[in-house]
Amino acid sequence: MPRCRVCGAPASYRVPWANAWFCPEHFSRYFERKVSRVYERYVPRSVERILLAVSGGKDSVAMLYASARVVGGEKELGVLFIDLGIPGYSEEARVIVEHHAHRLGLPFHVADIRGYGFTIGDAARLAASGRLGRPVCSICGVAKRYIMNRYAVEHGYDAVATGHTMDDILGFYLAGLSSREGLRSVAKLSPYTGGGEKLAARIRPLYFLTDAESAMYVEANGLEILGSKCPFAPRRRGEGLRLTIKEALENIDRRHPGYRVMLARTLADHVSGILYSALGPGETRRCSICGYPSSTDPCGFCRIRLRIHRLLGEKQDTGSRHP
User: Fold this and answer.
1) For a designed S-S bond to 186, which of 176, 220, 229, 230 qualifies (C-beta 3.0 to 4.6 A apart)?
2) Domains of the chain and any CATH numbers
3) Contact between residue 60 and residue 53 where contact means Cβ atoms under 8 Å apart
4) Measured CA distances, 50 to 105, 144, 238 (Å)
5) For the segment 93-106, what is each residue's pLDDT rounded down to a tens digit?
6) d(C-alpha 24, C-alpha 147), whole Å
7) Cα 154 to Cα 159: distance, rounded to the nearest angstrom
8) pLDDT tens digit string along 224-268?
9) Dihedral of CA 277/281/283/285: which sign?
10) Nearest Cα residue to 58 out of 152, 171, 167
């Protein structure tokens, strides 16, 4: 039976790149040390109020607990749940996130997408009909990024922390290398991205931790997570470029343990800075509709919102003419 490298107790959790086994307690400490280093090394001390964006999935729940344990005593933390209006799924997720927020004694905030006049359920139906011209997951991503930033700004938070893991980051990184605008996005893929006027900073506490490690963390700590998968997510692994890249990197890492860790460190400490210096931040303007910063006018979220409103209005008009 494997033994914990720290205390010698029976071990359940293996970290392949370090060739190490851990008992539940010491795996949790290993995980939290990695999160602590992100806050200590990359996040400025001036960042005092942090909004933790939690969906109820394993990664965001792991990020929530690890962040609360390593910086909860020195930073003011709040928990944000974005209600996307996905029937059944959103209700279940909200209950789980609210439970964890109350358990940790943290303020619980809800941003409901219905306040913008549509739901992701609406977007999914329109996307499936081909009338939106883009997949629902793309729309959902734009909406979540916009809503979490706006909520943080309007409620006085300095930064938003998300549950993106090393696997997510590297998927975005390799997918973004195919275009100039993609390279600008890659330049922002660091453990901490600074903010600005009407723009909250971003923190990625799980930057150096894998999907598998966040799953082990929630198991080791007996944390409840959302059991169901989003009904609009890709049905099989490998659907979508980033998922294909993540799967390929996992296969490489099995043959060459530590490859992903080295790639993430290089991206964080060298590549992002070099690309940012070479390309600059890109042109930023104000959305003429909502007033928030964007590379386009109107911003991506307002364009999506207006198009969905128009299509939903057409559907209602058609329905009224043909009862």
Assistant:
1) 176
2) 42-279 (3.40.50.620)
3) yes
4) 15, 17, 33
5) 999 999 999 999 99
6) 36
7) 12
8) 999 888 998 765 544 577 788 888 999 999 999 999 999 999 999
9) negative
10) 167
Which pair of tokens denotes residue 307? 């198009």
Supply the pLDDT for residue 238: 43
- How far apart CA 133 and CA 176 sit, in angstroms, is 21
In this predicted structure, what is the pLDDT of residue 280? 66
Read off the amino acid at residue 112. D
According to DSSP, the β-strands at 285-286 and 293-294 are antiparallel
Contact 189, 167 (CB under 8 A): no
**Dist. CA 203–CA 276, nearest whole Å:** 17
Q: Which residue type, as a one-letter code, is found at position 14?
A: R
Q: Give the residue from 128, 125, 200 showing the smallest Cα distance to 161.
A: 200
Q: How far apart are CA 116 and CA 124, in angstroms?
A: 16
Count of CB atoms within 10 A of residue 72's CB?
15
| Helix-, strand-, coil-residue percentages of the chain, each rounded to 5 | 55, 10, 35
Structure tokens at 48: 């005092």
Give which of 207, 224, 309 is closest to 264, Cα–Cα: 207
What is the chain's length?
323
Neighbouring C-beta atoms of residue 20, cutoff 10 Å: 17
> Is-above-0.90 flag for pTM?
yes
Ranges of H-type helices in 24-128: 24-42, 58-71, 89-104, 120-128
